[in-house]
Amino acid sequence: MKQSQLFTKTLKDAPKDEKSANAQLLIRAGFVDKLASGVYDYLPLGLRVKKKIEEIVREEMNNIGGQEILMPSLTPKENWEKTGRWTVEEMYKIKDEEMGLGWTHEEIITPMIMRHILSPKDLPKYVYQIQTKFRNEPRAKSGLLRCREFAMKDLYSFHSDEKQLDDYYEKVKQAYFNIFEKCGIRNETFLTLASGGTFSEYSHEFQTITPAGEDTIYICPGCGIAINKEVKKEKCPGCGGIKFREEKAIEVGNIFKLGSRYSEPFGLKNENGDFVIMGCYGIGITRLIGTIAEVLSDTKGLVWPAPVAPFAVHLIELSMGDVEVKEKAEEIYRILQNANFEVIYDDRDDKTAGEKFNDCDLMGMPLRVVVSKKTLEKDSVEIKKRQADLSQLIKIADILSNVQKSI
RNA sequence: CGGGGCAUAGUGAAACGGCUAUCACGAGUCUUUUGGGAAGAUUUAUUCUGAGUUCGAAUCUCAGUGCCCCGACCA
After folding, report:
1. Beta bridge partners of A146
2. In CATH, what number does A3-296 get?
3. Model-level pTM?
4. Over its length of 407 residues, how does chain A's per-residue pLDDT go in tens digits?
5. Within 7 Å: CB of A273 and strand B?
6. How far apart are CA A198 and CA A259, in angstroms?
7. How many CA atoms lie less than 13 Å away from A385 in the CB half-sphere?
8. DSSP assignment letter at A260
9. β A93-94/A32-36 pair status
10. Fold of the domain built from segment(s) A311-406
11. Handedness of CA A77, A82, A87, A89 (dihedral sign)
């Protein structure tokens, strides 16, 4: 994509109504725009990140047998009354209609799946969606970390017994770590024990350490498991350790054994007459965008891990009106594109080198490639990874292998 | 939902109750520039909304709305 065609503009100053690093940077770089508190537009760059994350999540969900569906956001009161959750205050209700906007989907998927799961041999089944959720948060905050409208992946599993659920639960756990690995935050993300409701003693959250987080967790150095403040006891349930490291963290995912909490009110039974055992597993897609921005950025701007970056390469031409340099840059742009690299090409004629470099750092693509008269004198381009201090000259003839190696 | 703060151009700021609301960046046009946010010329506003006080309100008062932060809440 040519940057001259991109309709978004970068900002030198952050809007004063955003205090969190993730919102300031994402807005300054033109990834998102705020419509209302906790409600954001996803602009071309931000939408590309969102799609990348969705694709990563999709792949991992499919790998563990997940079947993707899409449920409505508009949901009837009747379903929620069956489980006693129509009165939940976070639910947006539509005035004069017996409808509310979905903030989770147990009430929708459970009756839906009843028409398809008829006997024990139909179990287990795993069904997920990636969809916009609505929650009327009493206090939206911290940019994308706590929104009223947000994208979420919710997976629901259906089992004939607890053992089956337990096995699948462990698979999801692993899939989640794979996802956070690809998103570049694996090292900061801890499996965390949290309140589990009635069916199991604990549920598990995936908490990413950041001062911007709203939860407090205690990490046990013995086993590497964390415990949410809400359920912390004297000893670590994992290894019996008693020393902990306290950290602020943001919950990027959770997995939860539901048991028959929802199959009972809807009467979801298998042929043996047993209530189906369920699990649910969420990942906040848009919250992940905010978390990556918050955790991995530096003073210059965003830093995207290659798998989620909107573009792999930020190509910059410093032609300063030199037609030959410009043409050569265009040619390199085509070469990279033909090799299937995703490239954003700063072809703007009215920008100084400084502006281009600063925008490049702010947007945070993994690799910067500069073409100028200076580099062309040596038949070269200059490449630099986003976080590297120094750049290096490489021959244009070797550009594809070098770019491949660097991202 | 309790407490605190803020509201002026696309963004960030300035303006004692008194001159045509000022400056920077961005954006538009022109000229000159150019390896880390260039220079000059020129253009760019319903001062959040409503009411009030006053000869006169961006500025003071009241109400509303929005946003940010702290807390409560967070299947």
Report:
1. A141
2. 3.30.930.10
3. 0.96
4. 999 888 888 998 899 899 999 999 999 999 999 999 999 999 999 999 999 999 999 999 999 999 999 999 999 999 999 999 999 999 999 988 899 999 999 999 999 999 998 888 899 999 999 999 999 999 999 999 999 999 999 999 999 999 999 999 999 999 999 999 999 999 999 999 999 877 788 999 999 999 999 999 999 998 999 999 988 888 888 888 899 999 999 999 999 999 999 999 999 998 888 999 999 999 999 999 999 999 999 999 999 999 999 999 999 999 888 888 999 999 999 999 999 999 999 999 888 888 999 999 999 999 999 999 999 999 999 999 999 989 999 999 999 999 999 98
5. no
6. 8
7. 11
8. T
9. unpaired
10. Rossmann fold (3.40.50)
11. negative
What is the C-alpha to C-alpha distance for residues A390 and A130, in angstroms, rounded to an integer?
40
Q: How far apart are CA A197 and CA A53, in angstroms?
A: 30
- What b/e readout covers A304-343, taking b as 16+ CB neighbours within 10 angstroms? bbbbbbbbbbbbbbbbeeeeebbebbbebbeebeeeebbb
- Bases of chain B below 7 A from a protein C-beta are 1-2, 6, 10-13, 25-28, 33-38, 66-75
The two tokens of residue A162 are 């607890």
Q: So where are chain A's domains?
A: 3-296, 311-406
CB A262 within 8 A of CB A277: no
Q: Is the CB of A83 under 7 A from strand B?
A: no
Element (H, E) at A62: helix A44-63
Distances (CA, A) of A323 to A3, A185, A379, A394, A399: 18, 43, 16, 22, 21
Cβ of residue A322 lies below 7 Å from strand B? no
